Amino acid sequence: MCATQDLRTFYEEHLRTVLLPFWQRAVDPRHGGVYTCFNNDGTVLISRDKYTWSQGRFAWLWSTIARLAQDGVLSMPAEPFLAQAGRTVAFLRRHAILPNGNCAYLLAENGVPKEAIQGAGHDISFYADCFVILGFAGYARASGDEAAVEDALRLYDHVVERVQAGEFRTEPYPIPPGMRAHAVPMILLNVTQELLDLLMAMGHSRTREMRDRLVEYAEDILATFMQPDGRVKEILSDRTEDDNTVLCRHLNPGHTIEDMGFVLRAAGQTGRSDWIAPALRAIRKAFELGWDDDHGGLLRFVDMDGGSPRGRRYGDRYEQLILDTWDMKLWWPHAEALYATLLAHQMTGAEDMRHLYDQVHVYTFQTFPNPEQKVGEWVQIRDRSGRPVDTVVALPVKDPFHILRSVLLILERLVEEGIPR
């Protein structure tokens, strides 16, 4: 494990030599965006189709790299990243937004909408809309493009209206009728805090409104989905008879930890220090229930009392995903845990948070980086023992988002804390 003063060097080196080379090769210079439909070890491009949520994420990532380079956090030129982010934003403007104002879930290489599930239509996941908002907001913040600000706000308002009306879909994690998913206020919290940072930087008239919405989403998570002992329920039902189902009993440790990173950041944005203690309690509980003492690493799903998910079967696709993949070790919970635990330690000085950071750092960098250095990036999907598995766990993609986002946010945080290279 690197000492604190060496972390900035470690992460910037990992960014430069392991992560960026892979994704720079994957950029589509003609149409904009990035190719993500690779096999797990990154050696074969299986399809040139473009999942919209990955394109929105990519626009945010490349915009953030440009902004951090402009701010001196990264020692690299900003312009190539900002230019490619701009081409991706233009691609999304031209092709991603359907006539009804919703975003298409899947596009062909040239931007023509495609059905990912035959007969289901093009706008099957509001998560795609949320990540396009992130892309527009990230680009606006780095470039000062006022049109991108308005694009982000227009799409955000449309998403909020749909959620309030219950008129939205959530592929690849469909929510059964009468149930609520933690993922919905969680992604809205993240999107809202990104917009708040943008609007604050611009002195925009909607800044206060966005701060109020941020508070609303954070309090929904903490008051509704978080239990008194720190467990964060992934699914809540209107029917008490559903409480003992697999869907309502299962927990997602990585999701909890990622979301508590959002909550901690939101506490800093709003001055709500009362959110910090419950966020740390949730992180501790997620590690307590989700860490695999036999093999190391965070399990994908666990029962609310720990161990393999169990309960009455609902007969749902999401339920089958939980049962089939619960013990896998995936890239994104570990990347998010690096950021959330380091942030928690820096905000509070809590030594157990630094302990958890050290624990996940050692496991992550021993397990995920691709041993084939000429390929680079991470082998993102692994079984319980850490062996690579070439399978689909959500979208059929190798997505750059969680790894690069966590590395960039860590670097930004270390600079804020005055940590030298």
Order of helix and strand elements from N to C terminus: HEEEHHEEHHEHHEHEHHEHEHHEH
Number of helical stretches of at least 4 residues: 14
Strand order of the largest sheet: 3-4-5
Q: Please give the alpha-carbon distance between the first and last residues.
A: 16 Å
Q: Within the CATH hierarchy, at the fold level, what is the topology of the domain at 177-394?
A: Glycosyltransferase
Q: What about the largest sheet?
A: 3 strands, antiparallel
Would you identify the CATH architecture of the domain at 177-394?
A: Alpha/alpha barrel
Uncertain runs are: none
Query: What is the CATH domain class of the domain at 177-394?
Result: Mainly Alpha
Rg (CA only): 20 Å
Rounded average pLDDT: 96
SS-derived structural category: mainly alpha
* Strand fraction: 5-15%
User: What share of residues is helical?
Assistant: 40-55%
Basic shape = globular
According to DSSP, the number of beta strands is 11
Descriptive overview:
Helix content is 55%, strand content 6%. A 3-stranded antiparallel β-sheet has the order 3-4-5. It has a two-stranded antiparallel sheet with strand order 1-2. It is built from 14 helices and 11 strands. By secondary structure, the chain is mainly alpha-helical. Helix 6 runs parallel beside helix 9 (253-270) and helix 9 runs antiparallel to helix 10. The chain has a domain at 177-394: Glycosyltransferase (Alpha/alpha barrel), CATH 1.50.10.10. The longest helix has 20 residues, at 7-26. The chain has helices at residues 7-26, 52-70, 79-95, 126-143, 146-165, 183-202, 207-225, 246-249, 253-270, 276-290, 317-325, 331-348, 351-367, 401-416; strands at residues 37-38, 45-47, 50-51, 106-107, 113-114, 179-181, 235-237, 250-251, 302-303, 329-330, 381-382. The protein is globular and about 50 Å long. A hairpin with a 6-residue loop joins strand 1 and strand 2. The mean pLDDT is 96.
